[in-house]
Design goal:
Keywords: Carbohydrate metabolism, Cellulose degradation, Glycosidase, Hydrolase, Polysaccharide degradation, Signal
CATH topology: Glycosyltransferase
Strand order of the largest sheet: 1-2-3
Strand content: 5-15%
Distance between the termini: 9 Å
Family: Belongs to the glycosyl hydrolase 9 (cellulase E) family.
CATH architecture: Alpha/alpha barrel
InterPro entries: 6-hairpin_glycosidase_sf (IPR008928), 6hp_glycosidase-like_sf (IPR012341), Glyco_hydro_9 (IPR001701)
Protein name: cellulase
Radius of gyration: 17 Å
Number of domains: 1
Pfam family, one: Glyco_hydro_9
Largest sheet: 3 strands, antiparallel
Helix content: 40-55%
Number of helices: 6
Shape: globular
Structural class: mainly alpha
Number of strands: 3
Order of helices and strands: HHEHHHEHE
């Protein structure tokens, strides 16, 4: 679990910059459109059973067997960096940035007609984290293997195997996560 998630981190930082810029230059640029494309990226990274309202029509359900070999449902969350691994740390960072943006920039997000997309993006990850924390002192911090996944060039929808999931508990510490 040593990989630091580049794509989700980058998009989260982009969202923060766009919101800051939107407050001063919204009259010159269409920041609502830029934010909308950011949320499309988040939608394209979704794992699990996708809602009918998903705007990225080429995506389908994926990762439906995540956690089954370990006896827990870990479907949901976001894939990281163009592969099919779900890393807890970058996902947590992304949802934290989205949440702070929703709190600190409610007026701007609403004015750009992006508050609902923000809340949906937050909800997708928080629902996953509820599943990933099934009992006290247990957190499933990663699904998939970062090394082998980087060599697997297939659509997430075509994954049919149960994937390795990594549990943090008293026997498998991970205070860095």
């Amino acid at each position: 679990m040593s990989k630091f998630g580049g794509s989700l981190l980058g998009v989260s930082l982009l969202l923060t910059v766009l919101l800051a810029a939107a407050t001063t230059a919204a009259e010159y640029y269409n920041y609502g459109s830029a934010l909308d494309k950011t949320f499309l990226f988040f939608e394209a990274q979704r794992s699990g059973k996708l809602p009918a309202t998903l705007r990225v029509k080429w995506r389908g359900h994926s990762g439906l067997k995540d956690g089954l070999a370990q006896g827990v449902s870990l479907e949901g969350g976001y894939y990281d960096a163009g592969d099919h691994v779900k890393f807890g740390l970058p996902m947590a960072f992304s949802v934290t940035m989205l949440s702070w943006a929703a709190v600190d920039n409610r007026k701007e997000l609403s004015g750009l007609n992006q508050m609902q997309q923000t809340l949906w993006s937050i909800r997708w990850v928080t629902d996953y984290f509820i599943k990933a924390h099934p009992q006290p002192n247990v957190l499933w911090g990663q699904v998939g293997d970062g090394q082998s996944d980087h060599y697997c060039w297939q659509r997430a929808e075509d994954m049919t195997t149960s994937r390795t999931a990594y549990k943090l508990d008293q026997y498998h510490p991970g205070s860095d996560l």
